[in-house]
Specification:
- The protein contains nine helices and two strands.
- It is globular, with a radius of gyration of 20 Å.
- With 220 residues, the protein is mainly alpha-helical.
- Helix 5 packs antiparallel against helix 6 and helix 6 packs antiparallel against helix 8 (156-182).
- Strands 1-2 form a two-stranded antiparallel ribbon.
């Protein structure tokens, strides 16, 4: 699968993130300590050196670019990957979007923009998963992309049914996260519920794939 456009776009995103981090970093004191982690209340609970914090988003974006490029080269089912390029592109661009959200979250704290760090990340991840779920049901069997259980890989019928279910659940979970972020419902109380929603959307298709595989095997 050819990814020249995605690679060029990824390089642009990495360059912009790195330049923005460099611009902000050179305007801060040499010994400045910046946030590296926020708790469920949106409070900073871990700090690090300014360059460690500022260069994390471009490094994440660069790492994801290398990972997805490697997957596109290593996937044995290249024809299926090409047919499922919508999912692959959304996954690639979405992870870059998460890196951008991390950078914005960091800049908001440094420059006092007043954005909710946890709300921003929850919203970005929710949007990512909703978009990913929209494409999930359209994928064809592959070894390195999709819901890869022994049962989906063993039977194309199980793969298709599992991904259709998984796509619907992922869209629903993503929208729950996105709406919660937009309405400001992200807190220490609601965050565990949001995590459980996403875990259910991820685990139910795995169990379903096994049960469907058994049912199909008995029918045959």
């Amino acid at each position: 699968m050819k990814n020249r456009g995605l690679i060029l776009f990824s390089c642009l995103v990495v360059a912009v993130l790195a330049l923005a981090s460099w611009w902000v970093g050179h305007r801060l004191p040499a010994d400045a300590q910046l946030p590296l982690h926020w708790n469920a209340r949106g409070e900073v609970d871990h700090y690090g050196s300014k360059w460690t914090a500022l260069m994390l988003p471009p490094l994440v974006a660069a790492g994801m670019t290398i990972l997805f490029w490697g997957i596109s080269r290593a996937e044995p089912q290249q024809d299926h990957l090409a047919s499922s390029q919508g999912l692959f592109r959304v996954a690639w661009i979405g992870t870059l979007g998460i890196a951008v959200a991390i950078e914005i979250m960091l800049f908001s704290t440094i420059l006092h923009w007043g954005l909710s760090p946890i709300g921003l990340i929850i919203g970005a991840v929710g949007l990512f998963f909703a978009a990913l779920g929209d494409q999930l049901g359209k994928t064809r069997p592959m070894y390195m992309v999709g819901i890869r259980t022994p049962w989906t890989l063993a039977d194309p019928e199980v793969w298709t049914a599992t991904h259709r279910l998984g796509g619907k659940l992922m869209v629903l979970a993503g929208l729950v996260w996105l709406v919660s972020a937009v309405l400001g419902w992200v807190s220490a109380v609601t965050l565990p519920i949001l995590v459980l929603v996403m875990m259910a959307a991820s685990l139910v298709p795995v169990v379903y794939s096994y049960l469907l595989w058994r049912r199909i095997g008995q029918r045959r």
